[in-house]
Amino acid sequence: MNAIALAAIGLFVFILGYRFYSKFVAEKIFRLDPNYVTPSHKYKDGVDFVPTNKFVLWGHHFTSVAGAAPILGPAIAVYWGWLPAVLWVVLGTVFAAGVHDFGTLVLSVRNKGQSVGTLAHRLIGQRGKVLFLFIILILVLMVNAVFAWVIANLFISFPASVLPVFIQIPLAVWIGHAVYKRNKKMLVPSLIALAVMYIAAVVSSQVSFLQIDLVRYMGGEDGAGLFGLGAISTAFFIWIIILMIYVYIASTLPVWQLLQPRDFINSHQLIVGLAILYLGLLFTNPTITAPISNPDADVSWFPLLFITIACGAISGFHGLVSSGTSSKQLDKETDARFVGYLGAVGEGVLALISIIAVITFFPSREEFFATYSSFQASSGAGLGAFIRGASQLAEGLLIPGAVASTIVSIIVVSFAATTLDTSVRLMRYIIAELGSEYNIPSLEKKHVATTLAVVSSAALVLIPEGPNGFGSGGYLLWPLFGTSNQLLAGISLLLISIWLRKLGRNYAITLIPMIFLMFMTLWAMFQQVFLQWAWYAESPNTLLFVFGAIIFVFTLWIILTAIQALMGQKDPGFSEMDID
User: Fold this and answer.
1) Residue 330: beta bridge partners?
2) Position 536 pLDDT exceeds 70
3) Nearest Cα to Cα of residue 349 among 277, 241, 247
């Protein structure tokens, strides 16, 4: 199939989904009320609860959920051929991700802006809440480790991207001050900041001394580094420490001071990046060289595909963002459709171009198979294939290759960083909730909870184990990232289903994707984590097996508890409003 036609079909389905299906869900199922007083107004505190323009909030929400995962997952999944990946991204976005992200946002808004973990108490009981919070805690810990791993490695591989990424931080602080202290509009300053970033990208890609290359400073790839770790490992260690210091500060500042303005800049960056890639696709009209399917794959796509592509089709992490930060900033309840459903569609658009960039990059099918020789090989090659493929599309707009690679890497790093500090903020919320649950007041303190989140994330990503030695801890639990992410999405859909049933509404729109997702994920988890990666591997991964067993048992426990609640009687007196 022609690559342009493939993109056009996917985009058309996304438009139909937002125009018709999300409208049906908003009006007939969730019944959004423009006069409802949202938590951002009711509990306004200027830190977490901040009424926000829907376009600004969409930027925060979109860039928080659109990290590296909607790029990495699809870039790996094309190993099985482009058709299964495209179908799951497009249909999963319209019928699963959109409803999930939209639904968790509305559910939280109707319940004081509480997270889905806390809401589990009201919907399935105290035990279910605690189990769910622990699953969420494990997931965000893995998100922190994996995304920190990705960012540090991209800084090492593309040192020209470091300066533009760090320039964004003071620009975002300046914008936040101008908007919330001096009542300025955010759009123009954000566009100026984006222009400054891209000018820095062009200059740093051409001027070597502006490229912050820690490996070079340590004597090159063969350098001894610090304490005999080697130049690359030392550079990785330094970047992780810098990132952890940054996310500590970013996740404790008021959302208006850094998080919102930086995310608004990144929302423009994503739009510009998507425009460059899709326009590049039009101008280059590349040939799809990857196969439509791969019958010789060493690992079956069924059911593994549905956990390999999480973000970009459906992701439980999105529900944490919807109910953890976005619900506390929603100005009007009717904005939830724009922020939640359209945010999921935006990520689907990113996942679609990620697939197309990879499947059109290779000159021939033989070269594709040389890189994607096995599923394990695709896991290591996916992100690099995307960056090179996306750069090739950008070159169609006469952008020099070095500049194109820098811009693409900046986009990936920016989104990964946005997800990282949002995830650390969410982890702080969860630790505080657990502290309240078990009557440990010290854990409810912001800086204590944040310190625990940052230290545990750094410890995991720096575990000196795995196939790549030091600093491979970010991938140590990678097989569990997709499974726990999808299980979290399934549980969130189950909670929304229970809520809708108690209100006497049609809950099939959430129940059907929940059943599909739970079945595929539990099957894939048992098959891959317990059998292949943990138990029958030549070197069994004990940590992977233990974490997997805990999540698996907790999930089954929650499902059984939730089914009892779901099969209970409808409750006409059940309030859909928040309860004081």
Assistant:
1) 52
2) no
3) 277
